[in-house]
Amino acid sequence: MRREPPRTLADYLPLFFPAGMLTIFFVVPFGTMIAVSFFQRQQGGFYTPAFVYDNYARFLSAFFGGVLGFSLMLAITVALCCVVLALPFTYLLTRMSRRVQVVWLVALLSVLSLSEVIIGFAWSTLFSRTAGITNILVALGLMGEAKALTPSFAAVLTGMVYQAFPYTVLVLFPALVRLDPTLTEAARTLGASPLRAFFTVVVPALRNTITATLIMVFIFALGSYLLPQLLGRPQHWTLSVLITDQAIYQSNMPFAAAMAVFLVLVTLGLVALTVLAGRRGEAA
Amino acid sequence: MRSRRSPSPPQGFSTSWYGEIFLNPEWRSALFASVTLALLSAALAVAIALPLAWFLWRRVAPWANIFQLLGVAPFTLPPVITALGLLTFWATAGFYGQPWTAVVSHAIFFVTLPLVTLSLGFTSIDRSLVEAASTMGADDRTIFRTIVLPLILPYIVSGYAFAFVLSLNEYIVAYMTVGFTMETLPIKIFNALRYGYTPTMASVTVLFVVTAAVIFSLVARFGDLPKLLGAMSSDGK
Amino acid sequence: MSGLALQNVVKEFGSFRAVNDVDLTVPHGTFVCMLGPSGCGKTTLLRMIAGLDLPTSGAIGLDGEDITRVPTHKRNLGMVFQSLALFPHLTVGENIAYPLRIRGAPKEDQRKRVDELLSMIHLSGYADRPVSKLSGGQRQRVAIARALAISPKLFLLDEPLSALDAKLREAMQVELRQLQQKLGITTIVVTHDQREAMTMADTVVVMNGGEIRQAASPIEIYRRPADSFVADFIGQTNLVEAETDRSGRVTVFGQPVPGLDLPAGAAKAMLSIRPEDVHLTAPGAGALTGTVTFVRDLGGTIETFVDVAGRQIVAVSTPRARPEVTVGQQVGIGLTPDVCVVLAK
């Protein structure tokens, strides 16, 4: 097929609807949000147009700095845990038969698509005193008496890793499927054990993929807003929770918008930094 | 599976809690709202993604990739950002709280999924098939109808299915745009959580898991799931 | 004028000239094979004839009509692609009927024509099979039948047999040639396999570097190659240099070859000597003397490699005329003017 640049109006026609929809309902809202972040809050109502930096100045405080720091730390921890768990898992998955792969992929997609509400509900049940896993430990005689494991940081982390794990596997899957299996076979014939072959051949070959995956999972984890609420204490709340809280319950849209803009900037900044570091590492 | 560990297990085994979802007017209307929202928003998402993906495949227009980027962005950024953007937008435009805004919001939020599956689908169409059709006398429109559409159909269905399932489960965008006027199932569950656990919630959870598993199994049965998820070869290697 | 005519056709991809100023006339009913190494521009030329690529400059005419800018779907072609490009979502019958269907032919006519074509390619009764269930050779035939469904003005094939194994490929070459002769259709095949070209073509067009090096009948191409590229590309050959010495005699490796004439005014020229024309004699009896370095006995033919003053000369003989030589032995090589083809460059 000869691919040509579009010339006539008819050639451009298919682009109109998608371009229009994405512009009106994504670009414009995004711009609106940025604009609102400079607006003045109106007590009891919404906001009035203005151009003030108050909303940005406000979270340059110790409290919001702490929340931001915690959010980033949580997202990084989740990303690391997920990649460490998902890399060997996905590697083994790609070496399985097609049928096994499909079953796992269906299961992973089902978990991935689950609402945070449901994941939070399920884990808070599992971690509860009355019906949680500690009851099983008690029944097995491993524990004295059942106790609640939530709310706690560990519970938040577990829930978020559970939520992000399928995502991590699905991000890693294409790269690992395409990894030439003769690479490890060659390493094996050269005398490497399967484990050594994995760490000396597969992991280095996938360095860029791993970096990219870490970033993707980091952003994914940064978006978690219900699990910290359902499984953690207020000090475990992330920036996402705070943004929702300000927007909906405190009706402070300008402040929420400013935080959202800041979150985007921090996210993009960290991604850029990681990519840059990756490039430098490669050049060296 | 998880429901059996429910904190307040019902006495004995009963399926009546499942009936509750359909009989209780509140749960029923939440179910209805969620399913309607998912059906419509997934359709709109496909309607946005299909012409875009086709255009990018058919034409040489590097600048148009900006729209591909825009299509992928809502799903890649933390959802709260897209949600807040849409909230400020609907509030400014004066449509805040109207049910149809949720359809548009979800369609934009999930357009990434059909866009990715369709882009993948188009790259998997051998361009020589299109050339062959044109040597046999088919013009662009005929080629689209007789060759491209039948070959891309499985990808349209998968893209729709992905968007549908995720829309059914989505909380924050729905909550921020229509949370005060409409109750979807996830919103209903979250609101109900404040008053303690009920077996109905557990049944709804199971219903969600089963729905997702069934839909993805169907996608796997009629499409090529490993390929859809980015594996190049279809022989499972 | 009936047939295909290419005039000064040029195709550039960016700064790369894929096809450089090609002129070619293909009379109606001719079978042409475009032959050359990969990247020589033969596929690009075919795609321009089909309208799948537009020439940067030049004109393409068919039956006296300028079709340079006519879109592909209005050219009434039949084309077989290297990948075959069978539609995976259609059955064998639906694939063959496709060009008829989109032209709005009545269902009954479509069915009749499909049956006709299926019997022509010896696949009667296969109409309802999915194409994925066919063997390589069967898929090949279906692609050919589909291309011929509308009785096209021009039948184009791009490396059509490259996916088949050697035996099947040779059988299909014969079949394709017989089919073309029966239908009398103007046919252009792109191939990199010179055996294929020799088997099928009325005219072989040898291309290299985007240019036509020679266009002639297979036997002429073999016997009278225009240049050293053609001589080397078609079959096996020995390329040796001939020069005129001070006394005006034409010599090869310093040995005079009486009766051999170089082009007027040329002091040097390349000679092509086919291996089957190289006759080994006793040392001293031939014009040249060399040492046997290797003997390759392929059963049907025997190739003897001889080192003459640092250059390798290959002689091919049949088992009956087997030369009694061993590696390391000195042999003579007879050179007569009739076996030496003087090349233009």
From TrEMBL, chain A:
Q: Which residues cross the membrane?
A: 12-39, 59-90, 102-123, 153-177, 198-227, 255-278
Which PROSITE patterns does the UniProt record give? ABC_TM1
Chief location of this protein within or outside the cell: membrane
UniProt keyword terms in alphabetical order:
Cell membrane, Membrane, Transmembrane, Transmembrane helix, Transport
Q: Where in the cell is it found?
A: Cell membrane
* Gene Ontology terms: cellular component: plasma membrane
Carries keyword Electron transport? no
In this protein, which residues make up the domain named ABC transmembrane type-1?
68-274
GO BP annotations of the record are:
transmembrane transport
Instruction: List, alphabetically, the Pfam families matched.
Output: BPD_transp_1
Membrane topology value: Multi-pass membrane protein
The text of the family note is: Belongs to the binding-protein-dependent transport system permease family. CysTW subfamily.
**Protein name as catalogued:** ABC transporter permease
Give the species this sequence originates from: Sinorhizobium medicae
Automatic annotation (TrEMBL), chain C:
Boundaries of each ABC transporter domain copy?
Answer: 4-234
Cross-referenced Pfam families, in alphabetical order?
ABC_tran, TOBE_2
Read off the PANTHER family from this record: SPERMIDINE/PUTRESCINE IMPORT ATP-BINDING PROTEIN POTA, SPERMIDINE_PUTRESCINE IMPORT ATP-BINDING PROTEIN POTA
GO MF annotations for this entry? ATP binding; ATP hydrolysis activity; transmembrane transporter activity
Gene Ontology terms, cellular component aspect?
ATP-binding cassette (ABC) transporter complex
> What does the similarity note say?
Belongs to the ABC transporter superfamily.
Q: Name one GO biological process term.
A: quaternary ammonium group transport
Q: Which PROSITE patterns match?
A: ABC_TRANSPORTER_1, ABC_TRANSPORTER_2
Q: What is this protein called?
A: ABC transporter ATP-binding protein
Annotated signal peptide? none
Keywords for the protein's UniProt record, in alphabetical order? ATP-binding, Nucleotide-binding, Transport
